[in-house]
Design a protein that fits this description.
- The complex is a heterodimer of chains A (500) and B (253).
- In chain A, 30% of the residues lie in helices and 15% in strands.
- By secondary structure, chain A is an alpha/beta fold.
- Chain A has 2 domains: 63 residues, Alpha-Beta Plaits, CATH 3.30.70; 361 residues, TIM Barrel, CATH 3.20.20.
- In chain A, helix 8 packs across helix 10.
- The N and C termini of chain A lie far apart (61 Å).
- Chain B has a domain of 176 residues: Glutamate synthase, alpha subunit, C-terminal domain (Pectate Lyase C-like), CATH 2.160.20.
- Helix content of chain B is 14%, strand content 26%.
- Chain B has 3 helices and 11 strands.
- In chain B, strand 1, helix 1 and strand 2 form a beta-alpha-beta unit.
- Chain B is globular and about 50 Å long.
- Classes of the chains: A alpha/beta (500), B alpha/beta (253).
- At the A-B interface, helix 3 and helix 7 of A face helix 1 of B.
Chain lengths: 500, 253
């Protein structure tokens, strides 16, 4: 039986501009362009185009243009083309739909319903260009009180703390999901900007050990590449329970992506499937989580904060409270819009809750229970700009993780083809011909630029609010007001309506 | 408390000592010349043998707690008593010998090293054991394991001997080797088809299997005073992963 699958994109080639140079043929990893030797002409196969725009960027004569195909079915709000095509794909294959990046559906983005305050008349705003502004953030467990003796010596023993110059860290992206050049770009940028990058669960490549001081090493259910040297290499050890893009499920890195190099960091044979089980099999309860947290504290001799990352789900606040009591020094919540290298589409688009609500609820809960100081809160999943960062901090976050935003800085156009392993930008692939497209030096510079820009913007926002330290904004929800939200939403966020 | 250090053997009376303190003492010992330590009156202290700067021989009298030898990298632990859950969690190298029973998820995610258990173990023993280059974890269970033994196995060798079965009794575990995609299980005696995971096949042992088995049963017998020959007299079966990609056909593209 034949089924109809309309093209997603139209590839336009301006004949009078195209010089048959084949740059587009070489750049496209999805075979949307080809050279016809018989006719000595470069042609396109629009059915293969994923809309990543790599060819448009590289075409030396600007002969190419990619446009979205207009909807070809009869218009129907319920039975949109995506819905119809998903059913066709499944009818043909009998499989689960796989996708990449974060949820692209229209669930409410609460950041867009929140606005920040500024000082007018009754208190002065501060000019960050001429006055010192403080973004320094310390992650880790804080004591209930500190004792200082008369000679100003701290008498209280502090738990290990991580100093961040900017409260924006790079999310966990494992080697195997992204290329080594991407990881090196992240590691270099984190080192230069005084923040952290995260190995993900694929181990740490030997060439990146030198960035250990700015590295968070992750331990997930597959325990890939986890050994003594690895745990000692990073500043923070992070237990990954869940991920915003795929709460509650494990991961399958197919054998063909386990190259010789990936095999050395994951410490599994080349070409073997890396299957991460859905749960960590030593964690079936808060008590078990506590056991692993302290196993890692013992294994690192109490020198490193232990972070625990969960996907933001319905009872995230209560679970978070349990995590703090289990001994986590840092709690990471990854929201509904968190991205991934590959996840079943049904999970990515339907499971989990928006990070803003999870954050509001968790911060409130920990304050009510008087344990907010015992752990730092880091949020991830859809942080797009410095405005989002500032709002997250005002809602109670100590720092944020960015994943997609960092990849966009490296060239990603969010075409959602990560799961194919063919990323034309050389980001989410292990194809050596493609991974060369990221130069770690240039990549690091672009990431540094992004963080520098955000840091200037956050300082501007702070100055406008009349505060000179991020600490003064942290959890200070009076600096936020909401637009167009219901009473229940306002209540959970702990934010008042605009004008109120 | 370290009682004496004659002949480079340290002794610690662990009675009433919390695990944090006990492990701190072990770390201190590991940083000295001492190569062997005896822990007496151990009662539930966790994480023994984790993160030592150099491999030690640790003799434990009593019942060590969960995560015995977690992330261990070369030490040898001898338990005169029973071990609890998560023993050998993500072990990289070393040896754990248990003169008694073991708890659940014995050898979880181990990448290397050897674990010998004289008697029975709990659920999900050997789950997600791996192997890498010359590293190949070994788990030998003298008695029987509970359900999901060898689950998700991605490498290594798991041997189950059923030595404490009474006449006519056999293994009760179900879902044996479910999700297994590498490694091998040798089982003394036999099991019914319904006890096996879907991903597991049954085969006769070949010459190479016999060599591996003889070596491991030999080591097991030496630890626990068994006659290896007598153990090996009974027929073994070999369980192997039928698919290297058990979950290859899940996705639409």
């Amino acid at each position: 039986m034949k089924t109809y699958m309309p093209n997603k994109f139209i590839v336009e080639r301006e004949a009078d501009r195209c010089i048959q140079c084949q740059v587009c043929v070489n750049q496209c990893s999805f075979d949307a362009h080809y050279y016809d030797a018989d006719d000595d002409e470069v042609r396109s196969l629009k059915e293969n185009c994923v809309g990543c725009h790599r060819c448009v960027l590289f075409c030396p004569t600007k002969a190419l243009n990619i446009r979205q195909t207009p909807l070809e079915y009869r218009e129907n709000y319920n039975w949109r083309s995506e819905v119809i095509e998903d059913i066709i794909k499944q009818a043909e294959t009998g499989g689960m739909l796989l996708t990449g990046m974060g949820n692209d559906k229209g669930q409410r983005v609460y950041w867009d319903h929140l606005v920040l305050n500024a000082s007018q008349v009754t208190n002065p705003s501060i000019d960050p260009l001429r006055e010192p502004m403080e973004l320094t953030t310390y992650l880790g467990r804080k004591p209930d009180c500190v004792e200082v003796d008369p000679t100003c010596v701290l008498g209280t023993e502090l738990a290990p703390q991580i100093k961040l110059d900017i409260p924006v860290m790079f999310s966990a992206m494992s080697y195997g999901a992204v290329s080594l050049n991407v990881q090196e770009s992240l590691a270099r940028a984190a080192t230069e900007m005084g923040t952290m990058w995260n190995t993900g669960e694929g181990g740490l490549h030997p060439s990146l050990y030198k960035y250990g001081n700015n590295t968070i090493v992750q331990i997930a259910s597959g325990r890939f590449g986890v050994h003594s040297e690895y745990m000692h290499a990073g500043r923070v050890v992070e237990i990954k329970i869940g991920q915003g893009a795929k709460p509650g499920i494990g991961g399958h890195l197919p054998g063909e992506k386990v190259s010789a190099e990936v095999s050395t960091t994951r410490m599994i044979p080349q070409g073997s499937d890396a299957l991460s089980p859905a749960p960590q099999h030593d964690i079936y309860s808060i008590e078990d989580l506590s056991q692993l947290i302290y196993a890692l504290k013992e294994a690192t001799n109490y020198t490193k904060p232990i972070s625990v990352k969960i996907a933001a789900v319905h009872n995230a606040a209560a679970i978070g409270s349990g995590m703090v009591r289990a001994g986590a020094d840092i709690i990471v919540l990854d929201g509904l819009r968190g991205a991934t290298g590959a996840a079943p589409k049904v999970i990515r688009d339907n499971v989990g809750i928006p990070i803003e609500m999870a954050l509001g609820a968790l911060d409130t809960r920990l304050r009510q229970e008087g344990i907010r100081n015992l752990a730092s809160i880091v949020v991830a999943g859809g942080i797009r700009s410095s405005g989002d960062v500032a709002k997250a901090v005002a809602l109670g976050a100590d720092a944020v993780y960015i994943g997609t935003a960092a990849l966009v800085a490296l060239g990603c156009t969010v075409c959602q083809q990560c799961h194919t392993g063919k990323c034309a930008w050389g980001i989410c692939t292990s194809d050596l011909a493609l991974t060369k497209r990221i130069n770690p030096e240039i990549g690091a510079r672009r990431l540094v630029n992004l963080l520098r820009g955000w840091s200037l913007e956050i300082k501007d926002l702070l100055g406008g609010m009349g505060v000179n330290a991020l600490e003064s904004l942290r959890g200070n929800r009076l600096h936020l007001r909401a637009i167009g939200l219901s009473d229940t939403e306002l209540d959970i966020l702990g934010v008042r309506m605009v004008g109120d | 408390m370290i009682e004496n250090k004659e002949n480079s053997v340290a002794k610690i009376d662990a009675e009433g000592v919390l695990y944090k303190e006990l492990n701190a003492q072990l770390r201190e010992i590991a940083s000295s010349d001492t190569e062997k330590v005896e822990l007496h009156n151990v009662c539930g202290q966790r994480y023994i043998g984790s993160d030592l700067s150099k491999p030690l021989d640790i003799e434990i009298f009593g019942t060590p707690g969960n995560d015995l030898g977690a992330f261990m990298n070369g030490s040898r632990i001898f338990v005169h008593g029973n071990a609890q859950d998560c023993c050998g969690n993500t072990m990289n190298e070393g040896e754990i010998v248990i003169h008694g029973h073991g708890g659940d998820i014995m050898g979880l995610s181990a990448r290397g090293g050897k674990i010998f258990v004289r008697d029975d173990v709990g659920y999900r023993a050997g789950i997600h054991m791996k192997e890498y280059q010359e590293k190949k974890p070994v788990l030998v269970i003298g008695g029987a394991a509970q359900d999901f033994v060898g689950e998700y196995m991605a490498g290594g060798v798991l041997v189950m001997l059923g030595l404490n079965h009474e006449e006519g009794q056999s293994y009760k575990a179900k879902y044996i080797g479910t999700g297994m995609h590498a490694g091998v299980i040798y089982l003394r005696g036999s099991v019914e088809d319904y006890q096996l995971g879907r991903e597991v096949g049954v085969a006769e042992l070949d010459e190479n299997d016999h060599q591996v088995l003889e070596r491991l049963v030999g080591e097991f017998s030496a630890h626990f005073d068994y006659q290896a020959g007598a153990i090996l007299e009974q027929k073994f079966i070999k369980l192997f992963p039928r698919f290297l990609r058990p979950y290859g056909r899940l996705y639409a593209y």
